[in-house]
Amino acid sequence: MTDTLDRPAPSESQDLASPGLVDTERVADLVGQLLAAIGEDPGREGLSDTPARVAAWWRSFLSPQPSATPTCFTEQHLSGQLVVIGGMSVWSLCEHHLLPMNLDVAVGYVPDGEVMGLSKFGRIAQQYAGRLQVQERFTRQVADEIAVVLGSNGVAVAVRGTHLCMSARGVRMEAARTTTVLAGGRFESDPVLSQQFLTLATDRWRAA
Ligand SMILES: Nc1nc2c(ncn2[C@@H]2O[C@H](COP(=O)(O)OP(=O)(O)OP(=O)(O)O)[C@@H](O)[C@H]2O)c(=O)[nH]1
Ligand SMILES: [Zn+2]
């Protein structure tokens, strides 16, 4: 799927799955209730600490990642060089089934006077993975954020998703993978650049 980046700056009001505060005590209590509702004894050995563990996991999963402030460096004379950062694997949670999805993210851009710190692409991906998601929204949010930081919509994002809701339950298609691609600016108008990005971004997916 290819989409274009003709969009305004990201708006948290459009972000339905923005992380909120986690009431860990309440979550633990509800997990205890869930265990009882599925016929388990929440007090038995092996389960007694489970509600607290699960609540701690929710808190950690939904906690904002440490400083996603993107560091950029001035770098002149790059001669239209394509930069592709791939293999950024993050875990998110499908908002329909509350099951994990693995999102393998690749980002491409052509620096114009400034380069962004490489790790910051991964931090932005982690930031948007740490919430209830759908893959298409995640793809757009990552692209939007990077475009805002770079001050340019010349950004391409490709995501390959493995959804447990599709492989471990439901249709049970273990090999199913979902690929989303969002390309803007130069990537939209230059088919050669776009193809170069896709070749590099999907390299490891073909090898897998
Ligand atoms: N577009 C999109 N769909 C998703 C994503 N994650 C899960 N889904 C889909 O969300 C849909 C929810 O469909 P429902 O019919 O309401 O739920 P369901 O009965 O559990 O559906 P099945 O998964 O087909 O058993 C399913 O088709 C999922 O595959 C995602 O990231 N993007
Ligand atoms: Zn799902």
Automatic annotation (TrEMBL):
EC top class, as a word: hydrolase
PANTHER family: GTP CYCLOHYDROLASE 1 (PTHR11109:SF7), GTP CYCLOHYDROLASE I (PTHR11109)
Protein name: GTP cyclohydrolase 1
Catalytic activity: GTP + H2O = 7,8-dihydroneopterin 3'-triphosphate + formate + H(+)
Pfam family, any one: GTP_cyclohydroI
GO cellular component: cytoplasm
The protein's Enzyme Commission number: 3.5.4.16
Organism: Actinokineospora alba
